[in-house]
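Collaborator request log, item 7. Partner lab (contact: R.S.) asked for a structural prediction of TonB-dependent receptor to inform their binding assays.
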Amino acid sequence: MKHILLAFLMMSQFAVAQHKKQVDTTSTQELAEVFITANRTATLRKETPVAISKLNAKTINETKATAVYEVVNKTPGVLMVNLGNEQHMMAIRQPMTTNAYYLYLEDGLPIRPMGIFNHNALLEINQFNLQSIEVVKGPVSSLYGPEAVGGAVNFISLKPSLNPEFKFGIQADNFGFRRIQAAGGATIGKIGFLIAGISSLQTHSWMKNSDYNKDNLNARIDYNITPSTRLISNTMYGKYYSQMSGTVNEDSFYNRTYNSTSDFTYRKSDALRTRLTLEHDWKDNSASFLTAYFRDNKLGQNPTYRIKWSATSNPTTATGEINSNNFKSYGLLGQHTQKIDLLNAKLVAGALYDYSPVTYWAYRVDLKAILNSEATTPTVDHYEILAERPDIRITDYTADIYNKAAYAQFNFNPIDQVVVTLGGRYDNMKVAYNNAIDLSSGTKIYDKATFKAGMNYNPLETAGFYGNYSQGFAPPGITSIFTPKSGTGGTTGVAAEFYYNLKPATFENYEVGGWLNLLENKLNLNYAFYYMEGKNELLSVKLEDNTTDYRSAGETRHKGVEFGANYTPSKQFNIRLGGTYAQHTFIDFLVSNKPSDPVQNLNGKEMPAAPRWSGNSEISYYPNWLPKFRAAIEWQHVGSYYQNQINTVKYAGYDLFNARVGYQWKAFEFYGNIMNLTDKLYAYNVSRTNTSGAAPTYTAAAPRTFVFGIQYHFSLKK
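Returned to partner:
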């Protein structure tokens, strides 16, 4: 912490010195930009004591992404890992992980209820319905609740336009991807409406057995009852189906054959979310809202990551799993924001109630493993289904989840140029369950009060600084609880054992940061130093047969610096730089006390899939000699990281370059993206078990890809 405080003071002194050099200064775009997510209300950056970034409509439009990760990765300190066909992992102040340490929001409302986290939830997002994306880094549990530990990502959707508008686009690449997308809306009298839809199809890609299709439709209706009272309806429906090609072995990766080991694995999803919000603005600039919402999700899988195979015990056989996870949610969220003249204060207070019944079942699939005859060690070439075994249930439970929460946050100005923020929240998650495998039933309760305190100091119009302390809380997902422990149940002859004793993970985060504006507002800088300690963090231990064992014990430490810069030397150029340096370490993390286990205590070891360096930067060009033309080169860097938990083998990481061009002609925009410009061989993720001589598995990334598209935008402005 001494180094962090010293750096903070140095940056403060540097900002003051720069200010003295400037003759004329104005409020910067960075300080004046309005954020919603950090404080649950519209708030200026200079009043927000957290690390927060905003991706605006211009950035989203110019990216022309085929998947959300292409946009989100432009945020300093964020690495959204592509797993193919819009499936993903995330790394925000955490290693690349599928654990429930991130909160994904749509217009401020969580996409999933607490306890039913899905790391692939963002595949339900409609990219053609986005106005902006806000990313808060670090714990925001005191406002948004559990799982908001590494951070929160809020997707803010389009609003009805005042005048009739319509946009339509088609998009395709050289590997069989095609998308049609359209959106339109208007305001007629007191009623505004907007409809946005996409339909994506992938066939015959570079990776075998990786076809997918996705259809999403969003509809919004705003009824302006009076100038101060609004009724807003928002509905999303999406269908998704994808083959799961999974990982490839080392030979396939380096030979670029990209043969999937399974042609039968899949993931399918049906999602419905609808909400009705009543908003009212009071005469004293205060505001209230009440939201009633409903979710209906059905997720079915025959996942590659559930295939169990061992190179040492009967390597010609394996088992898989077919599962189904369905839930519904009925909820209410109410919030009031009160402005107070004394000390220019603002109070935000709210409460939530959510009832989510869930059913989950999984049964075994018997597989034959066809080995690679040319490999020196046993390696699977592909799997074949021998029999589906619905008679052998692996998991089978129902549960009613009751989430209750109350939160409050208070901002005030004790003196000029200083804003103090205090916040707290209490969460209570009750799970009433019936486990058909061990014929048990009961109730589990996870509750926690979380707190945060922060301060902003804005000595200049061109500089601001902040510091905060925040707490994070994440109960184990109920799927983890009711997954049988490896080696129990089924035909093993051992009674199934479950993870009833998994503990909630808790985190404490200390952070300082700030922003500067130099060179007459042409250069914007922002930075954040953080130190976060975790206890009982849920750890997935990858076993020899590719199964996962869960542990919640010991401590972890996460520390790093995030930095971003935006330089606009002229109207023709914009240079963006962003990145992070981080260390994620196990502290006294005892995972086993069995002498035969390959790993005992991970104390002092780096967490796997945790690159120290990562970042995304871009140079954009808007030539004066060709108005309405744009071109950009983007650089994505991911540093080296350990493949396993015992830190014996590293993956070197990669440097990736993407190029984008576009030209606006009247109401038409023509564009082209080249992803992986240099045709680099790389993998999004590489992992291996802790056993000696374990073979790595590669989540292969696409070779050079050409994306083409045309977009039409019609607007009838008065």
